[in-house]
Every structure is written in structure tokens, then in C-alpha cells.
Design brief:
single chain; mainly alpha; Serine Threonine Protein Phosphatase 5, Tetratricopeptide repeat; 0% strand
């Protein structure tokens, strides 16, 4: 576990409902290829803030990294439900649909 992840984990321990810190922790874990931990962090954000577009988008990316393609598509669709103009989610969903056909 690198220092940034340790620092963020301590911050989350002190403030478990701090969605920004949870998102940052998830991103750091994702960048460290700890996809399970990233998924856990993003899911916690969604429990606190069900309409958090970033958490849904990042969760979709983590699912895709784990080759959980149906879950990833579902999350990208949720992003588009919350933010229909999100071109990144549109593109990623399109790529996944083509890839999994």
C-alpha cells in the first residue's frame, strides 16, 4: 500500500461519510490496480450519495478493469440516466457493447 493510499484511508477512517475522500481513495486504489478495494470505495460513495455521477462512472471503469462487463455496462447506463449528456460514458458504453457482442 503506497503512502497516498494510507493517507487517504486514514482520512476516510476519521470521516467515513466524506465522499470526496472516498472517491480519491478509490482512484488511488484503482491506479494501484487494487480493483476490489476501488470497487468497495466507489460503492460506499454510492450508498452515501446515490446520484454521484463520478462514483458510478469510476465504478464502471473498475468493473471493466476486472472484466465484469455486464456490471460495467449497467453502471455506464446509470451514469447516463443521471447525466444523459455525459459523452465519456456514452463512448465507453458504446465500446463495451461492441466489444461484448
Amino acid at each position: 500500500m503506497n503512502n497516498e493510499i494510507k493517507r487517504l484511508a486514514k482520512k476516510v477512517d476519521k470521516r467515513p461519510n466524506d465522499t470526496e475522500s472516498l472517491l480519491s481513495l478509490g482512484k488511488a486504489q484503482f491506479c494501484n490496480s487494487d480493483f476490489d478495494a476501488a470497487i468497495d470505495a466507489y460503492q460506499k460513495v454510492i450508498l452515501i450519495d446515490p446520484n454521484n455521477v463520478s462514483a458510478h462512472y469510476n465504478l464502471a471503469q473498475a468493473f471493466r478493469a476486472k472484466k465484469m462487463y455486464e456490471d460495467a455496462k449497467s453502471m455506464f447506463r446509470k451514469v447516463l440516466e443521471l447525466d444523459p449528456e455525459n459523452t465519456s460514458a456514452q463512448e465507453e458504453l458504446h465500446k463495451l457493447v461492441k466489444f461484448t457482442e
